Amino acid sequence: xxxxxxxxxxxxxxxxxxxxxxxxxxxxxxxxxxxxxxxxxxxxxxxxxxxxxxxxxxxxxxxxxxxxxxxxxxxxxxxxxxxxxxxxxxxxxxxxxxxxxxxxxxxxxxxxxxxxxxxxxxxxxxxxxxxxxxxxxxxxxxxxxxxxxxxxxxxxxxxxxxxxxxxxxxxxxxxxxxxxxxxxxxxxxxxxxxxxxxxxxxxxxxxxxxxxxxxxxxxxxxxxxxxxxxxxxxxxxxxxxxxxxxxxxxxxxxxxxxxxxxxxxxxxxxxxxxxxxxxxxxxxxxxxxxxxxxxxxxxxxxxxxxxxxxxxxxxxxxxxxxxxxxxxxxxxxxxxxxxxxxxxxxxxxxxxxxxxxxxxxxxxxxxxxxxxxxxxxxxxxxxxxxxxxxxxxxxxxxxxxxxxxxxxxxxxxxxxxxxxxxxxxxxxxxxxxxxxxxxxxxxxxxxxxxxxxxxxxxxxxxxxxxxxxxxxxxxxxxxxxxxxxxxxxxxxxxxxxxxxxxxxxxxxxxxxxxxxxxxxxxxxxxxxxxxxxxxxxxxxxxxxxxxxx
Length: 549
Fold this sequence. Notes:
This protein has helices spanning about 15-25, 40-50, 70-75, 90-100, 115-130, 140-155, 160-165, 215-230, 250-265, 285-300, 320-340, 355-365, 390-400, 410-415, 455-465, 470-475, 475-490, 495-520, 525-545; strands at about 5-10, 30-40, 55-60, 85, 105-110, 170-180, 185-195, 200-210, 235-245, 275-280, 345-350, 370-375, 380, 410, 420-425, 445, 465-470. By secondary structure, the chain is α/β, with parallel strands linked by helices. A seven-stranded mixed sheet has the order 14-13-12-11-15-16-17, sandwiched between helices. It has a five-stranded parallel sheet with strand order 2-1-3-4-5, with helices on both faces. The mean pLDDT is about 95.
């Protein structure tokens, strides 16, 4: 797009629709549009070879190509050009599938106006630029596509749909901190993203990992919004992170980095603004340093500024194991729904950090046999079952699972494809894809990690009848008990563990029941149902509050 002129390739075989689009775009002066129209797929591909376009308006039903094949061939020819699908009213389902596969938006021909058309073009171009720039992230793309799918199914208001595609507030900082060799100052990038601000304070963890970027943090903030809304918590979604390998830093270096991070974002966090919590690569000690740094800045102790902190500093009982415990509560509900007895059922747990280890322990207490576990160092397998207490003791001593003697070792693809009743991906994102989803042999897929399953894999799992507990539901136990901790901090009143676990189970089982009912009523998968449940709450809040000014 140069000189404020947008070059549009219109692929449409209906002359009346072509004239309508040209007429609607002619009403715009800033930007102005240069439209090249063709009537066949072959002509479109030839045009793309000859001349670059800023955007493609594509009818999927053409004389020489039909359905998604049209989209796939255009996308293959022009992977970096945003595509908006035009659909007749009776083909909207097809348009939604194209959005699932990577189209940027869809327009229903009978409802196109100049405003909706120009806005869709502008947002699609901006989103493509963002994805190819600082927002470029497979996780953020996945989060947006999940959102767009749910938005289409629930017929979400276009104004709200466009508003929720990106976070409301994001900040990137360069964080210098001293290494233990005092003359060496290292600079890393830190992030804090707040997706929705009108649901109450925002809430979300802080991740220390060498793969952190703005797109990843934004995706996690977006998922946190739906998670909090699904649980009916008074929070919007947020997330933070530092692009660093925490295992390469000493304790003193971690402390200096954490205090620098807190100082850099001091204006964005607070018990009534944004409440951080632990995430990958961080723990209760990191939260204690954030609490102390923030309290030093304001001049008095503020325990409610973070959650997931040590109990002695106002942390909640049960918070550390809450995500794993909550996931198992939901597995129990899913097993009850499917008629699967957990006694002597089998489970595979990918990831043996806080979430995976806790999930394995609580599953074992339910009578489930843990036949395989894995972490960054190795994957262990024993068909007769692994002793979770023994594994935990070994990791406490050696930090990783590698070297554990009472098991065979497996590669990650083999472990994920083991036959079992329950598969728990509790490690990194995009572990279950279109390539391996057809070989997954579990009955319940319980997502402890964020974004472990791609959209394409979701479709395959659904067709194969595998019951998915999606991440926005499955790992919501952590933020739920974080909410309890925040409430206890505000009230200066501590709840007993029995009350915390009872409240946690009540909230999660209620969310499961609502999600399952939504899935059955709308004939959608559990992930889409959970997204719709959360989106309804966020939409209601936005409409009730209105727009200022």
